[in-house]
From TrEMBL:
Organism: Spirosoma soli
Lineage: Bacteria, Pseudomonadati, Bacteroidota, Cytophagia, Cytophagales
Spans traversing the lipid bilayer: 14-35, 79-105, 117-134, 146-161, 194-214, 220-243, 255-277, 283-307, 319-341
Keywords (A to Z) from UniProt: Cell membrane, Membrane, Transmembrane, Transmembrane helix
Bilayer topology annotation: Multi-pass membrane protein
Localisation: Cell membrane
Main subcellular localisation: membrane
Family that this chain belongs to: Belongs to the chromate ion transporter (CHR) (TC 2.A.51) family.
UniProt-recorded name of the protein: Chromate transporter
Keyword Aminoacyl-tRNA synthetase: no
Length: 387
């Protein structure tokens, strides 16, 4: 139990809450963490504001999907490892089953013009949605800090130039901000500093020569789960560089469709890995991709949790988080540029992307699923009247 306080809710009630949130929670990572604060801290008062903020800070510090890690931490607060495990499964399972079903439909009906037309419209809208999400993340995370904006610009530029995501840039950015804002005065090492050498060894493992099978999928998605910082959207550039550029498992249109699937389903955005895994190796591939992605973030949330509750307020850790977050948001911005240049190939697609972005800019509370649905209808209409 947290600080010896008896929880006012049962583990069953918490699991049911996250099962519902995973089934109906649209809007991406920022919205999902907002729902958790509104429901669990403000309304139900199951979680203290201090525990919530500690969990959010750890989720920002550790690699992996932000919303899923916060959910896992909140499960840990009063019910330890069992609570973290059951909450994590409940939060991820509904959207995983949805993307697997969509993957089956995509594989079996891809040749139908209607399916292609739907993804034509949705794929264009996704570009606008990610662009606006990146803008919100940047303003919220970077504020007026010139150093963080500088890191953002460098990260975005390098992502566009190399079409790749470099985890050493993230670690370097965190270290730079740490040294500038909270230079070390003791021998204390951050979680990332301790883990970096071990992660670096895994990062050098290459499966380029391996055939497409469950082993290579597991290795790649384990790296995705271990090295992707920031919100769930941060996994987009990493997946693009591996799935499309390095291994060629999917073409660019299929990858954009995979991102679109993540946008039209509730729960964590990173669940798109299940869709990608299904396209590559069927249902076993979906399971391996999801497990490979979520297991590292689960371990990197649960294992340091008791220590983070003790040391999480140290200025060095907070500064490191700021630097990593700035680099992660920059990588997302770079991925938006790459995907936009490659996928918006005609005037209608460009118009849909711009319209989606403008609508989200003008109507800040517009639910993204409604926007996706409208884009799908427009996509079908455009394709129907094209020669």
């Amino acid at each position: 139990m947290s600080n010896g306080v008896t929880p006012v809710y049962s583990l069953r009630e918490l699991v049911i809450y996250f099962l519902r949130l995973g089934t109906l929670g649209f809007g991406g990572p920022v919205a999902l963490v907002g729902y958790m604060h509104r429901d669990l801290v403000e309304h139900r008062r199951w979680i203290s504001d201090e525990d919530y903020k500690e969990g959010l800070a750890l989720a920002q510090l550790a690699p992996g999907p932000l919303a899923a890690q916060l959910a896992i931490y909140l499960g840990y607060v009063h019910y330890g490892i069992l609570g973290a495990t059951l909450v994590g499964i409940a939060f991820v399972l509904p959207s995983f089953l949805m993307v697997v079903a969509l993957g089956w439909a995509y594989v079996h009906f891809e040749g139908l013009p209607g399916m292609q037309a739907v993804f034509y419209g949705v794929g264009a809208a996704v570009i606008g949605i990610i662009a606006i999400s990146t803008h919100k993340l940047a303003n919220k995370s970077l504020g007026q800090d010139w150093l963080l904006w500088g890191i953002f610009g460098v990260s975005a530029g390098l992502t566009v130039w190399t079409e790749d995501e470099n985890m050493w840039l993230f670690l370097g950015a965190g270290t730079l901000v740490w040294l500038v804002k909270a230079p070390p005065r003791t021998r204390f090492l951050t979680t990332k500093a301790v883990a970096a050498p071990a992660f670096g060894l895994l990062a050098q493992v290459s499966t380029t020569s391996l055939p497409v099978n469950l082993t290579s999928l597991a290795l790649f998605f384990a790296k995705a789960g271990a090295f992707v910082f920031g919100s769930g959207l941060a996994i987009v550039p990493f997946l693009y560089s591996g799935v499309v550029k390095e291994y060629g498992w999917l073409n660019e249109q299929q990858f954009l469709d995979a991102v679109a699937v993540a946008m039209i389903t509730p729960g964590p955005v990173v669940i798109t890995v299940g869709f990608i895994g299904y396209l590559v190796e069927g249902f076993p591939g979906a399971c391996v991709a999801a497990l490979g992605t979520f297991l590292p973030c689960y371990l990197l949330t649960v294992l340091p949790a008791p220590y983070f509750r003790r040391y999480g307020k140290l200025p060095a850790l907070k500064a490191f988080v700021e630097g990593v977050t700035a680099a992660a948001v920059g990588a997302i911005a770079g991925a938006v540029v790459i995907l936009g240049l490659r996928s918006l190939t005609d005037g209608f697609a460009i118009g849909l992307a711009l319209l989606s972005g403008l609508l989200l800019w003008r109507f800040k509370k517009l639910p993204e699923p409604y926007l996706i649905l409208g884009a799908a209808v427009l996509g079908v209409l455009i394709k129907a009247f094209q020669p």
